[in-house]
């Protein structure tokens, strides 16, 4: 044991100076290490640590130690991302107050993946529970607060209602589809419903199984699409006198499973669908031919949406690992998505909504409380995340207000209606661009689609495509396209009714002295008539006539009605004062013209 300890000590001392090891071994003074001491030779020395420290800290001479700059890979995000300017970086969601929500609404318990809600500037329609068949509620937009338990329903289906959609060109017409394999078209009266509405205008009978989706054509009047569980998409022409239509104009039979969603491009010449086989198809809706089909295995699509005029599609679904995902596609090439983005691991369906006026994309998850929104760019990066609206109340369904029903005075660019089943509540959420000025913001309200069709049904069926009729959201503006408008009341009658006496000498002035002296009065008259039309339109609040309000039923509604009447009285007083001032101005101008003619 003593010899072995001396031998180990000799080897240990020799290994402390590795520069002399090889010479001593060659001269015979040091024997090579044995097998059981091989691991001792691999012990790192001080020089090894020094060389490692030099590589880590990049030492040169006696200079100060400094870390080497990080190497950024081509696909790695840098610490200083490039600044991107946007008008919508600070958009925020503003939920309505308790008084402006719709409370005690019996929302449906159906597990179908649909919106269950449809909104226009006059009404909000919600699918509800009904014994012995399917029904939905149609509530005037202004009638907020607690809903009467015996509020009238729109009922006539023998099965549960699965989808409802308002006609984009008629705010008093709505389509509904049901598990009874029928589609019904309803006319909603302008007055408040006093009893259940069971009389429908048209019934479409053609599907052999339940109908899960309905969709109106975006530019042609009276063209409706329906998708059923018989794997068929049917095209209906409602411009007929028949009350029951059994034969659709076209039946698209290219799908191999249940259709999950449908979406049109801007002019309605293309139809995009998703199917339960997780494939995306772009179809010619007139002929039924599949133009493009996506068979990408990495993305299982559930909902699809055309992104305006960008010639792109956005789909939401799941990835291979069952993460919720959205993908962006080129509508002319569906082989591989342009980009994919995983969101989270939840299981609820994602509903996409796109605003072509602001190029903003909203993602709403079923069972979520939040709403994510992005900005869509035509070039890379295609999707720019802005932020999200967060809430503790999960939504079962969602409704969206058309752009023509928004409040432009508060810079509102989008409005959702969340169906909260846990509270039997419908909560409006407004997406607002923060601006200090109270004037009309032209840059965030470009021309948008109007409630007027650009094509008749027979024109679209014959193969004509046309862009939608556009309108400005500025209060009092008219349609931008040169379309024939309904005739207006003659201005002369209105002028004579307002002030008949001062206008009698006007005719004498015109006969005596041509157009030079009446040009100013013509300008005043046209300006006055324009203001009169604006004031007539201002009687409508969000498209509802304030003089047709139903009688209040609760104390809260009574107070709201009282404040509205007080505001209306104040506005009418101001209007009367303005009219008196204008009358005096006209009388003074006529007097000046008489004096001028007397001098000549």
TrEMBL record:
Repeat listed as a keyword: yes
Annotated WD repeat ranges: 154-188, 204-246, 252-284
The DUF1899 domain, residue ranges: 81-145
Keywords: Actin-binding, Coiled coil, Repeat, WD repeat
Domain of life: Eukaryota
Family the entry assigns: Belongs to the WD repeat coronin family.
Protein name in the entry: Coronin
Gene source species: Cricetulus griseus
Taxon lineage: Eukaryota, Metazoa, Chordata, Craniata, Vertebrata
Gene it is expressed from: Coro2a
